[in-house]
Amino acid sequence: MAEAQKKRSRRRKKEQPIIVEPPKSLDYPNFSFDIEATDPNSRARVGKLKTPHGTIETPNYIFCGTKASIKNLSIPAVREARTDIILGNTYHLLIQPGTELIEKMGGLHNFMQWDGPMMTDSGGYQIFSMGHGSVADELKGRNKDKGREKSLLKITEEGATFKSYWDGSTIHLTPELAIEHQRRLGADLIYQFDECTPYHVDRSYTENALRRNYRWADRCLKEFERTDSGKQALYGIVSGGVYEDLRKESCEYVSSRPFFGTAIGDCLGGTYAEFKEIVSWCTPALPEDRPIHLLGIGRIRDIFECVPLGIDTFDCVSPTRIARHGWALERGNPEERINLRNAKFRDDPEPLDPSLDVPASRDYSKAYIHHLIKAGEMLGMQLIAQHNIAVINRLMREVREAIRTGTLKELEKEWLPE
Amino acid sequence: MAEAQKKRSRRRKKEQPIIVEPPKSLDYPNFSFDIEATDPNSRARVGKLKTPHGTIETPNYIFCGTKASIKNLSIPAVREARTDIILGNTYHLLIQPGTELIEKMGGLHNFMQWDGPMMTDSGGYQIFSMGHGSVADELKGRNKDKGREKSLLKITEEGATFKSYWDGSTIHLTPELAIEHQRRLGADLIYQFDECTPYHVDRSYTENALRRNYRWADRCLKEFERTDSGKQALYGIVSGGVYEDLRKESCEYVSSRPFFGTAIGDCLGGTYAEFKEIVSWCTPALPEDRPIHLLGIGRIRDIFECVPLGIDTFDCVSPTRIARHGWALERGNPEERINLRNAKFRDDPEPLDPSLDVPASRDYSKAYIHHLIKAGEMLGMQLIAQHNIAVINRLMREVREAIRTGTLKELEKEWLPE
């Protein structure tokens, strides 16, 4: 691996940086972000984020519809769980069914029949993380370097080349192509292309990637300006890995560019303490009038840790992913969740949460869902997925209310008692 | 196999028949079946079947919620597809999670949150068919005798013993236990216990089974009377395999007993012509004032063949089972269905059927569902399942209307053009 890195470094040194002049300013006529309330005790704030597909209040949670579907759930069921905004993954969608096809079908909104606000990432995250393990994997120390060489073939100044998991074909992605794919998908909030560095690389690797990410950001901005129709708003991404000075430098760079919003990305460290530290370096160094998104993080504990640091939006696959393993989120549980596979639920007549006005949470006994999971009935996962989304959406409503009333700490104790 | 049968026959001969005196009459105070219209050109009729959980019009289709769940669909989605009545399988439910548990949870209606009319079978069908292949398998010549010896351990005068596919435990089922299990489940329409004979047995095997089915019917009636609370109505089952005289004798026997309804069961032959012939022997020999159910049959063609023979209700797993393989039912298609896996749907912007007022049929392009199926997203199967149920429910509405107006033949040509 070290040898391979050296080789890559040598190759990289020969490459000429591609430098473009980014736009000085960009107009986002159909978008706005207004702070409505702030927490006197922290950086937490309530905002209104306006998009052409509706306005959402922040802090909010963006549910993952990775392959143009929220796993196991129909859009009416997602709406019933009071979801405000969802996300599609450019990487998966460009591989299958292709962004040209989705554009032809009227864009991602029409394709999956979601008419609310939507976000897409740039595709970069998956290219780099799928060969290397997710942010959560890094935090948990799993999958170090595993398979990175296999799917990610090459990173150059121009962009990245990787192998499609779908058909083995070679796919090339550049800052310009990342914008083009996201134009075709047509989500409201879109992303610059960046390299998400792995945890176990040295400072010089991170620094090189960071500098290239700057140039990629400028190329994205230029391409965004060239094809702008006022229907999408662009987010910049803060990188710099685990290095405080690089993070702050990255915040400064991204802030100097006319992005609509900012996301904290790249490697978020190897421990939970490190993760929180990295987020706390970034948020004070970012423009207060831009929404701040935290990429790929979203357990209940994370929300209570990161909202006070100033995070406005979260996304994570976990609410629907854990549902597939029988885990249901629970308010007031220090563990955050219960496993409905557990035999103790076999004859539990209580619903998951009757105070939630959602069929999955209110109408069915835990015994029934336990039975469905045991019997391998897909309906079990479907019900838990709807419930988990409803729980998270309620959490976000309560978090916003608590910021307004200055009671975030009290709310945290209700959700996560000692 | 022939050797094993002879052994069983020898053992059976030694057994003393268990003969009970069945009730002369039974009251079904909360049930009724009224003929509202008849077709002048056939035995087809429109009826009203009243149960404690509501009244349904017939001909109607009973969708299979085998393990207390309509595969992949929530009850709100099933209702949205305008479903009137569903079915649970006693065999699967007694194996997992057990009928005691479901009773404790308020019965099957409450357990799965379906508040409309419901049917359960006696458990007999699966005991015999799961070791031997389904009726459809027989019609298609598949799975002959395969595995029968494995799950079905013993048939005696007393009942049947089989091995649970769940945990390998030995389970005994008798006519009395079949009623007891169905009492606990609490469906509106319940069944006598019977042996469903396989296709490749000789006449004497069928005849012996038939005579034992009579005695089992009487034991069921007696047990039903003993535990009757007015909330359930009992169906008798016509057996006799492929033998005309045995079928007619069975019709006579079942008709002489105070069942609320009649079902045509047992082996329905090896070809489609044989199947239709068997049904046409039975229906004229059954009481006109009792609803007639056809067990386990329910393609679109079957409906058009069997409604004119006098069948009032159908059940079949096919609408949800074929959905799992990408097949969507289609009105006006001689093949009945289309396979959404087919590449020609990749960029088809049309919905499955915009005239159906159901999200799955109306809102999504075939291209989207094709993508979901290809990408392995469960939502694809979910959408097709809801669509297929909506198509069948529409078919049954149109069939009822066509009987009233004497236009069943014309309707058949609309659904199944040459």
Polypeptide structure, described:
Two copies of one chain form a homodimer. Chain A is built from 18 helices and 16 strands. Chain A is of the alpha/beta class. Chain A is globular, with a radius of gyration of 21 Å. The A-B interface holds A 67-77, 92, 96-97, 101, 104-106, 111-113, 346-347, 349, 359-360, 363-365, 367-368, 370-372, 374-375, 377-383 and B 67-77, 92, 96-97, 101, 104-106, 111-113, 346-347, 349, 359-360, 363-365, 367-368, 370-372, 374-375, 377-383.
Query: What integer value in Å does the Rg of chain A equal?
Result: 21 Å
CATH class division of the largest domain in chain A: Alpha Beta
The shape of chain A, in one word, is globular
The major β-sheet of chain A equals:
8 strands, parallel
Kindly report the average pLDDT value of chain A: 92
CATH architecture of the largest domain in chain A: Alpha-Beta Barrel
CATH superfamily of the largest domain in chain A: Queuine tRNA-ribosyltransferase-like
List the total number of helices of chain A.
18
Bin the strand percentage of chain A: 15-25%
Helix and strand composition category of chain A: alpha/beta
**Which two chains form the greatest contact, residue counts included?**
A-B, 43 and 43 residues
Instruction: Tally the beta strands of chain A.
Output: 16
Q: In CATH terms, what is the fold-level topology of the largest domain in chain A?
A: TIM Barrel
Low-confidence stretches of chain A: 133-149
Helix content of chain A: 40-55%
Domain count of chain A, please report it. Answer: 2
Q: Could you tell me how far the N terminus lies from the C terminus of chain A, measured between alpha carbons in angstroms?
A: 43 Å
Side by side, the strands of the main sheet of chain A go 6-5-4-14-13-12-11-10
Oligomer: homodimer
